[in-house]
């Protein structure tokens, strides 16, 4: 490498950062033959290349200069199959996908509180919002006011609260009510970006909050990740209908191991008297789990506090009363007993 050229490059600022391109380590190579110089740069932000190029050419006036951008390795466009899934999250020891056949049964609430309950046990936990069209997690985890931040090497920095890391498309939109009008192929690539380009660090658990139904995103998650446990959420009314069964059958057919079934909004606790009302009868979730030979992980009642705390971004398992904390902790304990997770002893 020519020292003289290198010294000139030390004078070239990287736009808006106040450091030189040599300091930032983006000069990949310098080739010189007499007055002919070829400089290769490895820049993440390609839009800034012409500015840097112009500065270099200007400072090396006496030379015949060519500035090149290093070819980036193309992202693997090889999609996995459900029989042989890719692993786009090798940093996560275990992956839990929380799903249901229908909307509004409490997947996001369950995902949030399970993730926090795992973190309370000392595990390193990431919570990924795969509900790209209805991203509810930022509000539930109290980070709705935050915006996406970029770290070094073009990595996205996840938000953090209650001891877990959180990534959601909701953090990328200017306001929580901005709708995303995306074709599903775009949504799928955004999801893959959240798996590959987020600075998750090492995780014991990546908990994924799935959108309702059995569509493209569910399939993508099953094809691009080796899911350790699919967790199904249902409500007592749903037990009677086919949607939950469809979600169970889909998991079974595509070979996703099922961690178990949770019955949410099982019974009602009257806020004034604390009395329990079995509005929809009792035992439906358990019976459904038995019918499909999957573990029953527990019941969570319909509790007004769960709703209002969740809306305020105050997860019940962290900030609720002892009873509310207990529902989620009991489910996590059962999940940890039931599923052969890969784990070091918690710190
Ligand atoms: N056990 C519960 N008691 C009272 N309210 C609850 C309970 N579980 C969830 N909710 C409330 O029900 C609503 C729907 O819950 P949530 O958003 O978790 O469902 P979802 O399955 O993720 O919905 P979607 O399919 O739209 O993503 C929320 O307002 C939430 O606060
Ligand atoms: Mg949801």
Write structural notes for this entry.
With 347 residues, the protein is an alpha/beta fold. It folds into 2 domains: 3-69, Fe-S cluster assembly (FSCA) (GMP Synthetase, Chain A, domain 3, 2-Layer Sandwich), CATH 3.30.300; 92-338, 3-Layer(aba) Sandwich (Rossmann fold), CATH 3.40.50.300. The chain is 32% helix and 22% strand. It has helices at 3-9, 49-59, 107-120, 137-140, 184-196, 216-224, 236-239, 242-253, 284-291, 304-311, 316-319, 322-338, and strands at residues 27-33, 36-41, 64-69, 92-99, 125-129, 149-150, 156-157, 159-161, 164-167, 203-209, 229-234, 258-269, 276-277, 296-302. Strands 4, 5, 8, 9, 10, 11, 12, 13 and 14 form a 9-stranded mixed sheet that branches. Strands 1-2-3 form a 3-stranded mixed sheet, covered by helices on one side. The longest helix has 17 residues, at 322-338. It is elongated and about 85 Å long. The two termini are 48 Å apart. 40% of the residues are buried. The mean pLDDT is 88. The structure holds adenosine-5'-triphosphate (ATP) and magnesium ion. Magnesium ion is lined by residues 107-108, 131, 136, 209.
């Amino acid at each position: 490498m020519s020292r003289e050229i290198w010294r000139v490059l030390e004078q070239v600022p990287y736009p808006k950062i106040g450091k030189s391109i040599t300091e930032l380590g983006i000069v990949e190579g310098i080739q010189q033959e007499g007055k002919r110089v070829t400089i290769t740069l490895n820049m993440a932000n390609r839009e800034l290349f012409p500015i840097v190029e112009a500065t270099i050419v200007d400072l090396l006036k006496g030379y015949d200069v060519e500035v090149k951008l290093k070819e980036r390795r193309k992202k693997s466009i090889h999609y996995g199959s459900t029989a042989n899934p890719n692993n786009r999250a090798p940093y996560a020891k275990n992956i839990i996908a929380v799903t249901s056949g229908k909307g509004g049964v409490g997947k996001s609430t369950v995902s949030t509180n399970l993730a926090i309950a795992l973190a309370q046990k000392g595990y390193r936990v990431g919570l990924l919002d795969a509900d790209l069209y209805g991203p509810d997690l930022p509000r539930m985890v109290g980070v709705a006011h935050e915006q996406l931040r970029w770290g070094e090497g073009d990595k996205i920095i996840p938000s953090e609260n209650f001891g877990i890391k959180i990534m959601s498309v909701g953090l990328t939109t200017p306001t929580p009510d901005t709708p995303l009008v995306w074709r599903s192929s775009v949504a799928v690539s955004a999801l893959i970006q959240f798996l590959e380009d987020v600075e998750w660090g090492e995780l014991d658990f990546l908990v994924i909050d799935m959108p309702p139904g059995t569509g493209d995103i569910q399939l993508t998650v099953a094809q691009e990740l080796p899911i350790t446990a699919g967790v199904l959420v249902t409500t007592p009314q749903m037990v009677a209908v086919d949607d939950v069964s469809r979600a169970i059958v889909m998991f079974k057919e595509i070979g996703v191991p099922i961690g178990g079934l949770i019955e949410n909004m099982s019974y009602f606790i009257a806020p004034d008297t604390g009395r329990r009302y079995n509005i929809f009868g009792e035992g439906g979730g358990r019976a459904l789990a038995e019918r499909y030979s999957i573990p029953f992980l527990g019941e969570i009642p319909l509790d007004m506090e769960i709703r209002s705390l969740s809306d305020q971004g105050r997860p019940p398992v962290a900030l609720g009363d002892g009873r509310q904390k207990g529902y989620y902790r009991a489910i996590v304990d059962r999940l940890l007993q039931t599923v052969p997770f890969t784990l070091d002893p918690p710190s």
